[in-house]
Write a structure and sequence with these properties.
The chain has 545 residues and is of the alpha/beta class. 47% of the residues lie in helices and 10% in strands. The chain contains 22 helices and 13 strands. The protein has a 6-stranded mixed sheet with strand order 1-2-13-12-10-11, sandwiched between helices. A 5-stranded parallel sheet has the order 6-5-7-8-9, sandwiched between helices. Strand 8, helix 12 and strand 9 form a beta-alpha-beta unit. It is globular and about 75 Å long. The structure holds 6-O-phosphono-beta-D-fructofuranose. The site of 6-O-phosphono-beta-D-fructofuranose (F6P) has 14 residues, from loops.
């Protein structure tokens, strides 16, 4: 982390020195000597309660982290984002997902034009359309009502809405079947449509660019399937709508302009679930519930923009992530949601975080000399406890983790929820405080067997506890992580809103596809790739078995 003169920022150096002092700190010790710790290191915002006391951090650690955030200009960078400045510098675009959920009657100007009338107009169009699908007023080409909605998209045009649909299932119209197809593997679309009737199926083709290979291939397959049933191109207008920024390509595909839901280049794909990309979610849960989800996003946006750094939830999570990544050697970050409805939450966060902060070049074009975005991963609890928690408890790596849980279940069957939550609380306690050799021996374990059963503890966790998983809570939760990622991008001095790293593979795949289609390997591949291609070409012709 360098200041202008090429020296490490003094705030960075202070944290490095403090990290050396903290090597001997333990959570047992920190809690033992400070009874006010849990009360002080917790806060509530937008319906979420965060306890961050189980972190290897003291008041001094936090003071140094806030100082680093100030030195990196976090406050002014945040204001620049909310103000619509072109902070996505490599693509010369503003970053305005916060405008998509701006619920107040205010304007936000980009290049001298207020974007809010457009945002509100598209939301109104989405509401009218989803209402028509839900009521049966929107009919397929044969006059039958729509019973199945299939979203075709990938990355940000899939993960956010797929996650939200799963999370908000209790709020959805259960008479509608909603599916998400992303993979170019023909298995995905085949399995998604095999038991559906084209006469009752609506496809939402979601692609910011409308040129993404996977999405366009799946959309063409879906269009062929519909046309096989109707043999009339006019059927496309009743069975396909598009969500895109690219009106020209949408028209070229054959989708009527009136069936296109627009969004804008100042919305990043992975930050687009509040835009028209959320259309399948709105069809499933209705415009009112979708609006409540936007309210939750907005509440967290306001908290992030207005709360002081030291009482600011995304800043706290972001700076603690910096502390572990850059000063205590953590390589990964686990997100462990104790709610089956959040099964796809970690997958969505992976894109939000890793596509944003998986960068090696600083804003001034030089190679960074510090670690940037961590590997983000996770599974819903309690499943992970029976799979990978062993490593978190007793492995050699430091894995900071977020535990997300709810006080009330949407499915209060028997004592399931108390059992779920007893695990939730027990895990963070065990991770923090462990079990000493003396405690193990006192339980009657032979001294020589004891080392295998010792838990060192000192495994840091954040606990996010909300009353219930509702559209509002989900919005607040997603916005919390979006802003956390923003905070870290500012600290690491990288551009969080482009994704040039995905280009090379795409270009190479395009060239290799031509070779596979012609059966001729003409490019100068490395030995390994050439041999693999030859084997594929030779064997793909052979009948199975
Ligand atoms: O290849 C990565 C990416 O560009 C993501 O950033 C994006 O969310 C995804 O592809 C899909 O892009 P599109 O919405 O343009 O189809």
């Amino acid at each position: 982390m360098r200041a202008r003169q090429g020296h490490l920022l003094s705030e960075w150096r202070a944290l490095a020195a403090h990290a050396r002092e903290m090597k001997s700190a333990s959570l047992r010790g920190l809690f033992g000597s400070d009874h006010g710790r849990a009360g002080r290191m917790s806060l509530e915002a937008a319906g979420l309660y965060l306890d961050y006391s189980k972190h290897i951090a003291t008041d001094e650690t936090l003071r140094l982290l806030w100082a680093l955030a100030e030195a990196r200009g976090l406050r002014s960078e945040t204001a620049r984002m909310f103000g619509g400045e072109k902070i996505n510098a490599t693509e010369k675009r503003p970053v305005l997902h916060v405008a998509l959920r701006e619920r107040r009657d205010v304007g936000i100007t980009v290049d001298g034009k207020d974007v809010m009338p457009g945002v509100r107009g598209v939301l109104a169009k989405m509401a009218a359309f989803s209402g028509a699908v839900r009521s049966g007023e929107w009919k397929g080409a044969s006059g039958r009502r729509i019973r199945n909605v299939v979203n075709i998209g990938i990355g940000g045009s899939d993960l956010g809405p797929a996650m939200a649909y799963e999370a908000l299932k209790p709020f959805s119209d259960r008479s509608l079947t909603v599916r998400f197809v992303s993979n170019v593997d023909g298995t995905h679309i085949s399995e998604a449509i095999r038991d559906l009737d084209p006469a009752e199926t609506l496809f939402v083709v979601a692609s910011k660019t409308f040129t993404t290979q996977e999405t366009m291939t799946n959309a063409e397959t879906a269009r062929d399937w519909v046309l096989r049933a109707f043999a009339d191109r006019k059927a496309v207008a009743r069975h396909f709508v598009a969500v895109s920024t690219n009106a020209k390509e949408v028209a070229a595909f054959g989708i009527d302009a009136s069936n296109m839901f627009e969004f804008w280049d100042w919305v990043g794909g992975r930050y687009s679930m509040c835009s028209a990309i959320g259309l399948p979610v709105m069809i499933a849960i209705g415009a009112d519930n979708f609006g409540m989800m936007l309210d939750g996003f907005h509440a967290m946006d306001r908290h992030f923009a207005e709360a002081p750094l030291e009482r600011n939830m995304p800043v706290i999570l972001g700076m603690l992530g910096v502390w572990y990544s850059n000063f205590l050697g953590a390589e990964t970050h686990a997100v462990l949601a104790y709610d089956q409805y959040l099964a796809r939450f970690a997958a969505h966060l992976q894109q939000v975080d890793m596509e944003s902060n998986g960068k090696q070049t600083s804003r001034d074009g030089r190679r960074v000399k510090w670690n940037t975005g961590p590997v983000v991963w996770g599974e819903p609890g309690t499943n992970g406890q029976h799979a990978f928690y062993q490593l978190i408890h007793q492995g050699t790596r430091l894995v900071p983790a977020d535990f997300i849980g709810f006080c009330r279940s949407r499915n209060p069957v028997g004592d399931h929820h108390d059992k779920l939550m007893s695990n939730f609380f027990a895990q963070t306690e065990a991770l923090a405080f462990g079990k000493t050799k003396e405690e193990v021996v006192a339980e009657g374990v032979r001294r020589k067997d004891a080392p295998h059963r010792v838990f060192d503890g000192n495994r840091p966790t954040s606990t996010i506890l909300a009353d219930e998983l509702t559209p509002f809570t989900l919005g607040a939760l997603v916005a919390l992580y979006e802003h956390k990622v923003f905070v870290q991008g500012v600290i690491w001095n990288i551009f969080s809103f482009d994704q040039w790293g995905v280009q090379l593979g795409k270009t190479l795949a395009g060239r290799i596809l031509k070779e596979l289609q012609s059966g001729d390997i003409v490019l100068d591949h490395d030995g390994s790739t050439a041999a693999l291609l030859r084997r594929y070409l030779e064997r793909r012709r052979k009948a199975p078995g």
